[in-house]
Amino acid sequence: MTEDEVAVRAAGVVLWRAAPGGVEIALVHRPRYDDWSLPKGKLKRGEEFAAAAVRETREETGLHCELGAALGSTRYLVDGRSKEVRYWAARAHAGDFVANTEVDRMVWLGPAAAELRLTHERDRPLIAAFLLTLP
Q1: Which class is domain 3-131?
Q2: Burial (Cβ within 10 Å: 0-12, 13-18, ≥19) of residue 121
C-alpha cells in the first residue's frame, strides 16, 4: 500500500506514566467496537500526524501529553478502505479521564498486561517498540 493508496490517515500514542517499578500504559475501551486499544483517531483536514496524536489523546483520555519517539505505523483495511495509523510514545501529563460516547473506560496497566488486553494483534508490537525507547 503506497502513500497515495491510503484513504484514511490517523495518529495515536502509547500513553505512559511512571509507576512503582516501571511504567504503566493507558488503554481505552471503545463501546462502538467493544475493543481495547491505544488512544488514536483520524486527522482533520490539513492537520499533521503529530498534532492529531496529541489532540486525539486529549479527546479520548482527558490527558495532556508530550510526544516522544516515533514508534512506527500500522496499516490495515477498514470497511474496504486502507487506513494508516502513525504512533508515538507519549508521556501523560495533567488531566482527568471522563467517560464519553467514544471512550467509556480507560485503564492503566503494566506493559505485559496492556499487551494482553489489547484487542487487535496489530497493536501489540507497539508496546515492544515503546519499551525500546525507555532509558
Answers
A1: alpha beta
A2: exposed
